[in-house]
Amino acid sequence: MPDQTRNEQETDSFKPYKGRFQSYPELPEKGRGKEDILNELSLMAEEENAKWTTGKVSGTFYHAGDAHREYLNKTFSLFSHVNTLQFDLCPSMFKMESEIISMTAKMLNCDAVKAHNPADEVCGTMTSGGSESIMMAIKTYRDWAKAEKGIDAPEIIMPNTAHPAFDKSGTYFGINMVHIPVSEPDFRVDPEAVSAKINKNTIALVGSAGNYPYGLIDPIDALSDIALHHKIGLHVDGCLGGFILPWFEKLGRNIPTFDFRLPGVTSISADTHKYGFALKGTSVVLYRNNDLRRHQYFSVPDWPGGMYASPTGAGSRSGGLTAATWASMLYLGKEGYLETARALMGVADAMIKGVESIPELLLIGDPTFVVTFRSEEVDVFHVNDFMKTRGWRFNCLQLPPAMHFCVTMPQTFVPGIADEWTKDLREGVAYARTKAGTVADTTAIYGVAGSLEGNQAVTEMVYGVFDHLFSV
Ligand SMILES: *Cc1c(COP(=O)(O)O)cnc(C)c1O
Fold it and tell me: Which ligand 1 atom is nearest residue 129's CA?
């Protein structure tokens, strides 16, 4: 278990620039030269970029190449100073946002809603990211259920693999989030277990496409039937998969339907700042109809500062992000997204084959772009210890211990990356065998949570890390 008093070495690893660059606990008396500042920033950026341009870092950098990034930065700079809320001064913002929302909705088969109810029409808003999209959807269901059904003690049922942004929303908005554990062999939520938890306070269900831990797509079709039957909402979290799974499907992959083709799906979140290849700080939340979206909006009509209204949780947002998102989608087009998905799929499939060739490793579920495995023969956290020495950065999973690698574009830029992956993994497994019976370094952090005391200890530790990171 990690000690609550961090040792010096650990402390230093969080603050690599301490002593190397000057610290600024307060504003400098006189401003520093631009050149000087730019040089220092470039140094930090270059060193940090070197860590993931190897292609050995899971997820994190949803980045479609240097040329694409430069192009986005140009489009950003044209509107970096603009506030998206100022629709009177900057009508470009709502032109772009309405088109981003519409393009995303089409990609997720919004036209299908008419077949179920001709009055429905998919709509949405742009937000600052996946967490905000999720928070907005959860708030929307709360306010909808209060207005339409008089529910005062709302509950939402979610798989325990759904993103923590749902729990955050539950905490922020006073909603009881009921967790359904997933388990082997399927690792997707069991619809019957969901059904069993429905009561008169249930306002909505949650499913993921795909979920963060395993990249797996919950049985959204079954959840859709349940939601329709009980006349409750169903939010599909497509933050991660929303901009990639539709293209995998077009490439012939068997992707279970998760979008507006299912009549019970009432909202979807999809992150432009992940596989939309836009800049960080953007996402889209979609609703099946405008009656729902209305519950997301907010206004203070009689504020002394003027009538105030905002569609999302954020107030001001940078128009640069809106412009860059729009520009990313227009530049790539259907063809561009299809081609990036094809490249990603090629690498992911080769990585999946690599795992399959190692008998000690067990794939979790039927992977698409997230490759997840566990083991019953070696401690996968020993494998992670070894992979770290080879420059790989996995995401470690717990309960049960497993590891995942989320394939993004940086992997596709490194020829032979999947061969290296397989070779290193094989050596990692051999290393883990020699370490049997010992505690992996990785276990020092993972492997504590799961009990009340363990959870408290982990929370105390990570809050301590935040405190430390926020110190100059
Ligand atoms: C990334 C992600 C989110 C949202 O995260 P943000 O960091 O707020 O964009 C939600 N769900 C899943 C499955 C994700 O992978």
Answer: 9
C-alpha angle with apex 55: 49 to 60, nearest 5 degrees?
65
Atom of ligand 1 nearest to the CA of 271: 9
Closest ligand 1 atom to residue 240 Cα is: 15
Beta carbons of 7 and 13 less than 8 angstroms apart: no
Contact 343, 409 (CB under 8 A): yes
163 CA to middle of ligand 1, Å?
7
pLDDT for 183: 85
The DSSP element (H or E) to which 201 belongs, if any, is none
Q: What CATH fold (topology level) applies to the domain 334-454?
A: Aspartate Aminotransferase, domain 1 (3.90.1150)
Which residues in the chain are classed under CATH 3.90.1150.10?
334-454
Q: Is 208 in the pocket of ligand 1 (CB under 6 A)?
A: yes
Ligand 1 pocket, 239 CB below 6 A?
Answer: yes
How many Å lie between the centroid of ligand 1 and the Cα of residue 290? 24
How far does residue 252's CA lie from ligand 1's centre (Å)? 26
Q: What distance in Å separates the CA atoms of residue 221 and residue 209, rounded to the nearest whole number?
A: 12
pTM value is 0.96
CB 167 within 8 A of CB 206: no
Say yes or no: CB of residue 238 within 6 Å of ligand 1. Answer: no
Take residue 5 and report the two structure tokens written for it: 């008093």
Q: Which residues of the chain are in CATH 3.40.640.10 domains?
A: 79-326
CB 284 within 8 A of CB 101: yes
Q: Residue 9: what pLDDT?
A: 47
> Is 278's C-beta closer than 6 angstroms to any atom of ligand 1?
no
**Fold for the domain defined by 79-326:** Aspartate Aminotransferase; domain 2 (3.40.640)
Residue 436 Cα to ligand 1 midpoint, Å, equals 35
Q: What is the pLDDT of residue 10?
A: 47
| Residues in the chain where the model's pLDDT stays below 50 | 1-11
Q: Using the structure block, give the residue that is written with the tokens 């909402």.
A: 233
Residue 169 in contact with ligand 1 by CB distance below 6 A:
no
pLDDT given for residue 170 in this prediction = 98
- For residue 151, what is the DSSP state? -
Question: Which residue bears the tokens 């050149």?
Answer: 35
| Rounded Cα gap, residues 55 and 410, in angstroms | 5
